[in-house]
Amino acid sequence: MFKRFLQITIFCFVTLSIVTLAGGIDAALKWSENMQASNAITSLTGVSKAEIVTAYGSLCVGGAIGILVALLVVTLVFGRLYCAIICPVGCISDITAFAGEKIRGYRYRHLGKKSLVIRIFFLVVIIGAAIAGWATIDPSYGTWRTLLGGLRLSALPSFIAACALFSALILLSFFGGRAYCNHICPIGTILGLVSRFSLYKVRIKHEKCPSGCTECEKHCRCGAIDPKSGKVNASLCINCLDCIRGVCPKDAIEFTPPQNKFFFSKDYKDLTK
């Protein structure tokens, strides 16, 4: 419950920060927008060589590096908490997915090896487009900024394109949960690679896991759980912990650190084994 409260609070602060682009309230709320990974990357790459030697340039670079290092450390310890709590697009996806679950039920599934192919494809395409100057490193966050800024900050074609992309995100989240976060978003893909080595992970204790049960897979918005092999894909899992709260009938799923000096107990299964 606290995680949901924190997620919605940060989402509201980020939204207000974007809407109030100047003035007193913006100064108070800007910190929440600056926590976003895409903003840190933009600040880091947007400062020219001449600006780096100035106080402003040094502050931008130093702040961006600090945010990215903190994000890396948190991911190495707790996995993709950034995606679960801080990212506003993730909050939008969760709200839309929740509505979809109430209407169509829980029908998520694990994609297996196809997931990796899709993620690499979109990672290469989006990073290539960002380098060419055709898109930002996080298109969904840029779309959200454009929508909130409205026509007063964007040209009509840009605003229409943002509306179309946002509609696609809503549709994808309604039917696929965190499909965008795990298969299209480059920030999510990069953090997913890091989270494979995280200390804390969602693990399935196979001695308790009932045979033939697929409840955890159907409830996982990330498609991270493969019930046939009893594995949790740490790179897809955002550690929302929804699978732990009342989903497993045998309480066979836990969020734990390594269980022995070799990092993993033989009682647990995950993709790093």
Tell me what you see in this structure:
With 273 residues, the protein is mainly alpha-helical. Helices cover 59% and strands 5% of the residues. It has 13 helices and 5 strands. The chain has helices at 2-19, 24-34, 37-46, 49-52, 55-78, 81-86, 88-104, 113-132, 139-149, 156-176, 179-183, 186-195, 215-219; strands at 201-205, 225-226, 231-232, 253-256, 268-269. The strands form 2 sheets. A 3-stranded antiparallel sheet has the order 4-1-5, with no helix packed on it. A two-stranded antiparallel ribbon has the order 2-3. Strand 2 and strand 3 (231-232) form a beta hairpin. It is globular.
Blueprint (SSEs and pairs):
Layout lengths: L1 H18 L4 H11 L2 H10 L2 H4 L2 H24 L2 H6 L1 H17 L8 H20 L6 H11 L6 H21 L2 H5 L2 H10 L5 E5 L9 H5 L5 E2 L4 E2 L20 E4 L11 E2 L4
Antiparallel strand pairs: 1-4, 1-5, 2-3
Helix pairs in contact: 1-2, 3-5, 7-10, 9-10
Q: State the distance separating the first and last CA atoms.
A: 31 Å
Strand numbers in spatial order across the main sheet: 4-1-5
**Count of individual beta strands:** 5
- Please identify the structural class as seen in this structure: mainly alpha
Sketch the topology as an H/E string, one letter per element: HHHHHHHHHHHHEHEEEE
Beta-strand content: 5-15%
Shape: globular
Kindly provide the radius of gyration, computed on alpha-carbon positions and rounded to a whole number of angstroms. 20 Å
Number of helices: 13
Mean pLDDT score: 76
Oligomer: single chain
The helix content, as a percent range, equals 55-70%
Report the major sheet: 3 strands, antiparallel
Low-confidence stretches: 48-57, 261-273
